[in-house]
């Protein structure tokens, strides 16, 4: 009898709960109906009260469902599932082999294929990437063998655990980490790896009270031994002609202190350097920073108008090769960012497939290619893309979003909303707690090492011993006819023209104790 009473009581409770919920739903529907028919902002909701709201829900949820249920492996943008899957597997250091056959369509115009050699490089003859020295005329040149490095991502745009993971992972992998334009944080330094400090248009981290470049703060930054190079950012691929944007909710007291800005207010940097308005201004700025810091100095730009680069080459010839930029970072128009206006992101700038060969040819023909190193940036998240960039003339490659995938990014497209579900681009502690810096640092290192290994596989298949020996003759590109043609026909290997004024001089090397100093002849 007791059991019957309990069952009856439970049924009565559930019935009351159901009726209560039903009443709440009915009241909610009535309230929403009244709101919808009386508002004049959304036509759909006014014409179809309550029901019309599902349109906005489905539109919002669609971007999440498409990548899991509807899009094919090679369809998504900006990165498809096949690309992301390789990055995830590389970061986890699990088997990246695939079976049965490739899902890649080789027919679209522009598709890249590498020409395998009949006599590939044997394993015992294979070599790691060779060392390259940047800034031979600096007091402190930088020598590294890393072909794949971490592109500029600011602390503020990225979360604290994300920057800590990148810092430790870069040190483990032996690659460099670019600070982005948001200044040098303790978390960039925490791992002890090589750092490239980026100077943006707002001079964050090296600015005085008026926002001008401060030599004193530059000296402090350069005083850190692991700050190896300085990069002046002229423009960025996702937003050429537009400054960086950091929403006010991300400007914490700590970030404000690092950048030298007001806490809690949106941080919008100028769309250009007020003190760099010409090629001569740029060269003067680079030379000044190099003199103050003693470190290699270059600049980053997305290429659009090409005339100014030709003018820069001529100015270098007049000034002397020792006063040339130590490197140029070329960003692609399809680069990424946390936030940018869609007209700029979609329609402004040249893609890397056009700009990289052109800049490489320009420097080669002027006899400056050995002096000015090229760093390529823009959607280079798989070995084939990095190998292509090296073949086109890049000395180094960098990636931001590839390493974000290594951190666990799921391409949720929430970077600018402080709602990143993986904790990579949010300052919400509840969302950050899922990102373990120790675990993700290991994944960052795995991703970089597996990238280097994958590029090596392509190089060895092409018959060269290491990645930096790849040339355009190793690459075919599908033409409009549907047939492939050598990349060296579209972009012929340039004949280097060196005159006496631009001929690089080999600096004398003298040993002083355990240090090797570079002395101009």
Radius of gyration: 27 Å
Largest sheet: 8 strands, parallel
**CA-to-CA gap between the ends?**
106 Å
Please mark out the parts with pLDDT under 50 across 5 or more consecutive residues, or reply none.
497-521
What average pLDDT do the residues reach? 87
Number of strands: 17
Q: Count helical runs.
A: 17
Strand proportion? 5-15%
Strand arrangement across the biggest beta sheet: 4-13-12-11-10-7-6-5
Helix content: 25-40%
Counting helices, strands and paired strands, the structural category is alpha/beta
- Form type: globular
Report what the structure shows.
- The protein has 521 residues and is α/β, with parallel strands linked by helices.
- It is built from 17 helices and 17 strands.
- The strands form 5 sheets. An 8-stranded parallel sheet has the order 4-13-12-11-10-7-6-5. The protein has a 3-stranded antiparallel sheet with strand order 1-14-15.
- Strand 6 (194-199), helix 7 (215-222) and strand 7 (227-233) form a beta-alpha-beta unit.
- Helix 5 packs across helix 16 (437-461).
- 43% of the residues are buried.
- The model is unreliable at 497-521 (pLDDT under 50).
What are the key terms here?
521 residues, alpha/beta, eight-stranded parallel sheet, three-stranded antiparallel sheet, 17 helices, 39% helix, disordered C terminus
């Amino acid at each position: 009898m007791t059991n019957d009473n309990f069952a009856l009581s439970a049924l009565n409770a559930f019935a009351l709960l159901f009726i209560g919920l039903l009443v709440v739903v009915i009241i909610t529907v009535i309230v929403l109906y009244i709101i919808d028919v009386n508002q004049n902002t959304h036509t759909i909701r006014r014409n179809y009260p309550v029901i019309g709201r599902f349109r906005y829900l489905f539109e919002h949820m669609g971007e999440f469902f498409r990548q899991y249920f509807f899009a094919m492996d090679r369809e998504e943008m900006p990165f498809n599932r096949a690309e992301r899957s390789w990055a995830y597997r590389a970061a986890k250091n699990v088997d990246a082999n695939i079976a049965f056959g490739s899902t890649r369509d080789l027919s679209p115009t522009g598709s890249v294929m590498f020409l395998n050699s009949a006599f590939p490089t044997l394993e015992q003859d294979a070599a790691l990437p060779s060392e390259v020295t940047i800034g031979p005329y600096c007091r402190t040149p930088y020598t590294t063998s890393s072909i794949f490095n971490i592109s500029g991502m600011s602390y503020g745009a990225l979360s604290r655990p994300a920057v800590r993971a990148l810092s430790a992972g870069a040190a483990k992998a032996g690659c460099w980490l670019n600070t982005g334009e948001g200044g040098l944080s303790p978390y960039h330094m925490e791992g002890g790896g090589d750092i490239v400090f980026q100077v943006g248009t707002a001079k964050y981290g090296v600015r005085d009270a008026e926002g001008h470049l401060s030599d004193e703060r530059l000296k402090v930054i350069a005083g850190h031994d692991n700050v190896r190079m300085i990069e002046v950012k002229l423009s960025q691929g996702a937003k050429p002609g537009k400054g960086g944007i950091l929403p006010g909710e991300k400007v914490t007291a700590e970030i404000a202190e690092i950048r030298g800005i007001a806490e809690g207010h949106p941080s919008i940097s100028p769309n250009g350097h007020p003190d760099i308005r010409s090629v001569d201004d740029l060269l003067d700025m680079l030379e000044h920073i190099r003199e103050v810091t003693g470190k290699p100095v270059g600049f980053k730009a997305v290429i659009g108008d090409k005339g100014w680069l030709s003018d820069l080459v001529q100015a270098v010839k007049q000034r002397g090769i020792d006063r040339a930029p130590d490197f140029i970072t070329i960003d692609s128009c399809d680069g990424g960012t946390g936030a940018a206006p869609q007209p700029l992101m979609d329609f402004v700038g040249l893609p890397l497939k056009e700009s990289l060969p052109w800049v490489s040819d320009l420097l080669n023909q002027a006899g400056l290619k050995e002096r000015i190193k090229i760093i390529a940036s823009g959607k280079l998240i798989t070995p084939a893309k990095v190998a292509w960039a090296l073949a086109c003339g890049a000395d180094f490659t960098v990636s931001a979003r590839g390493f974000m995938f290594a951190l666990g990014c799921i391409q949720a497209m929430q970077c600018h909303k402080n709602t990143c579900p993986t904790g990579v681009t949010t300052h919400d502690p509840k969302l950050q707690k899922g990102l373990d810096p120790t675990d993700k640092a290991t994944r960052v290192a795995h991703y970089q090492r597996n990238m280097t290994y994958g590029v090596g596989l392509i190089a060895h298949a092409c018959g060269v011993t290491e990645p930096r020996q790849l040339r355009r003759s190793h690459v075919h590109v599908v033409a409009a006819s549907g047939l492939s043609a050598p990349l060296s026909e579209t972009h012929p290997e340039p004949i280097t023209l060196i005159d006496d004024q631009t001929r690089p001089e080999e600096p004398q090397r003298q040993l002083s104790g355990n240090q090797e100093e570079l002395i101009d002849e």
